[in-house]
Design brief:
234 residues, five-stranded mixed beta sheet, 10 helices, single chain, alpha+beta
């Protein structure tokens, strides 16, 4: 299927994935994670992108964020990627590309889906078998959202804030979300929407986003179009 043009409407959350080229390692030391986080903070502030959740794996990054200005996510990711590649190539005496082309993303419906994206992102190290509990992985937002660790990078979404009337109750409510792993169908839906640049939400949300952006938000049906045989015989 042909790649769809990028959609980046203001105030609609996005799930973003940036992968290493051919799944190669992008973070080889603790300093690498620190450097990426530094530029992510700098350019999220500059381009007015609120970062709600993240995980930095060895060969890719997941972000859940909300842009507050037009094209903000693209501008932020380009700036972060450019600076980080320069740093990485210098540090490891290499040259050439590091990232797998442009980043992938999907628009996320807040109701029913946004908190699921929090879980999906922060459980990534558990699914990968790197840790047993999300709290054991340092380079994600779980310790901030679930345990109250302070971070200038994290901006809580209003749905996260609605989990409780104070920080302790919010964190407890958030931890409750992690009692179960993300269901297989939801995993498949998230991956499809992100890889294809579509909308993650119900039918109403897909229609609303399509109207807003002027582009389709669902995958084409597999196979030949209805009526193709009749037309070919006319």
């Amino acid at each position: 299927m042909a790649r769809l043009p990028r959609a980046c409407p203001v105030d609609i959350p996005q799930h973003v994935i940036q992968r290493g080229n051919n799944r190669q390692v992008c973070f080889a030391s603790e300093q690498d994670f620190v450097a990426y986080a530094h530029w992510l903070l700098e350019y999220s502030v500059k381009y007015q992108v609120e970062i709600h959740a993240w995980v930095m794996m060895t060969n890719h990054v997941h972000l859940l964020c909300t842009p507050r200005t037009a094209n903000a996510v693209s501008e932020m990711m380009q700036a972060v990627g450019r600076n980080y590649v320069r740093y990485f190539n210098f540090s490891y005496k290499r040259s050439g590309t590091l990232w797998e082309g442009r980043f992938k993303s999907c628009l996320v419906q807040e109701e029913g889906y946004l908190l699921q994206l929090y879980r999906y992102i922060e459980l990534n190290p558990v699914r990968a078998g790197m840790v047993e509990q999300p709290s054991d992985y340092v380079w994600s937002s779980y310790q901030i959202n679930a345990l109250g660790k302070e971070s200038a990078l994290c901006t809580p979404h209003s749905l996260y804030l609605a989990l409780g009337s104070d920080p302790a109750s919010r964190q407890a409510g958030y931890r409750d979300l992690f009692k179960y792993h993300v269901e297989n169908q939801l995993l498949a839906d998230i991956r499809l929407a992100t890889n294809k640049g579509m909308a993650l939400g119900n039918g109403r949300f897909e229609v609303e986003v399509a109207s807003l952006t002027g582009r389709r938000m669902t995958a084409n049906k597999v196979g030949r179009p209805v009526g193709w045989r009749k037309k070919s015989e006319e």
